[in-house]
Amino acid sequence: MSCSCCCCCDGPVPNSLHYVLPGIITGIIGYLYSSFVFFAQNRVLLSGASSWEVLFFHCLTVLLCWSLVQTLRSQHSLLPRQTLSKPQIQALTMQKVTALSDAHIEVKSNGAVRVCRKCRAVKPDRTHHCSSCRRCVLKMDHHCVFLNKCIGYDNYKFFVLFLGWSAATCLYQSSLLFRYVLAKSCSRAATLHVFGKLGFFSPHLLVGKHKLQWRIVSVFVGSACLGIALACFYVVHLYFVANNYSTLEYCEKRADPEYVNYFNIGVVRNFQEVFGTFREFPYWFVPVHSPSLLQRDGKTFPLNSKYIKVD
């Protein structure tokens, strides 16, 4: 999988895209939801669906929007700017990390501390400078051009939940439409074996009562395609969580045969690093910070004792 598929951004994003793509994403969400509510919901209920099934769809939509808002409003992944002078920066770039107590696993090729000259700050482990946001981001995963937002330590959980709830909402919506609205039409198609004889596939789609059927079909197709795509992205990020990778780390370092992921502390603990402890299990599914993670600063991370040994 290429880095571009994960929305990694190595260079500045054109200003014209800063709000265009987020606007498109918001428009798609609004179109699919409003089309279901105003054109399909009554037909779904009249065709035998229970009110609980429809209510569940609305709950999924709320979780989707909540996760999106939390992802966008988070600002705590940004590393505070410092006021290091040029001599201080020069001295730090020459200072080699010699012990684990220096709290730096990631160093420059010469063994020195990583320093961001643009933010004039020492970069903690897993911190990267985003050329689009023009700030250093703690545990930077990637810059998502579709949301015009850096995904990092503070909002990565929200982003993963956004992918998961978006996929669930789209797939569940398409399931409702197919089972209660389009199933009869598909059954008729199987009987006739000729799609051109179907009313909602005919040239008369755009007039009269066929217009409504066409809208429902378009929402079904759009929801199904989006749901499958989002589910794939969701599974990819679950893989990253299970192995304690960020998208940047996976793209940049996986090809290095000598690369060792010191931050991989086991699948269970890796998930707890993102979602919280088992006692906080209900927090795993809602876009709010788990209490245990609020005590962390995003600058230091547990290390795998298999690779790191302290005397």
TrEMBL record:
Membrane topology classification: Multi-pass membrane protein
Q: Which GO terms describe its cellular component?
A: membrane
Family membership noted in the UniProt record: Belongs to the DHHC palmitoyltransferase family.
**Annotated ranges, domain Palmitoyltransferase DHHC:** 114-253
Q: Which residues cross the membrane?
A: 19-40, 52-69, 158-178, 216-240
Q: Does the keyword Chloroplast apply?
A: no
| Annotated GO MF terms | protein-cysteine S-palmitoyltransferase activity
Name the reaction it catalyses: L-cysteinyl-[protein] + hexadecanoyl-CoA = S-hexadecanoyl-L-cysteinyl-[protein] + CoA
Q: Which UniProt keywords apply?
A: Acyltransferase, Membrane, Transferase, Transmembrane, Transmembrane helix
Q: Does the keyword Membrane apply?
A: yes
Q: Which organism is it from?
A: Hyaloperonospora arabidopsidis (strain Emoy2)
InterPro entries in the record, alphabetically? Palmitoyltrfase_DHHC (IPR001594), PFA4/ZDH16/20/ERF2-like (IPR039859)
- Known Pfam families for this protein? DHHC
Q: What is this protein called in UniProt?
A: Palmitoyltransferase
Q: Where in the cell is it found?
A: Membrane
Q: Give the primary localization class.
A: membrane
- Source taxon at top rank: Eukaryota
EC number from the UniProt entry: 2.3.1.225
Question: In the UniProt entry, what is the domain comment?
Answer: The DHHC domain is required for palmitoyltransferase activity.
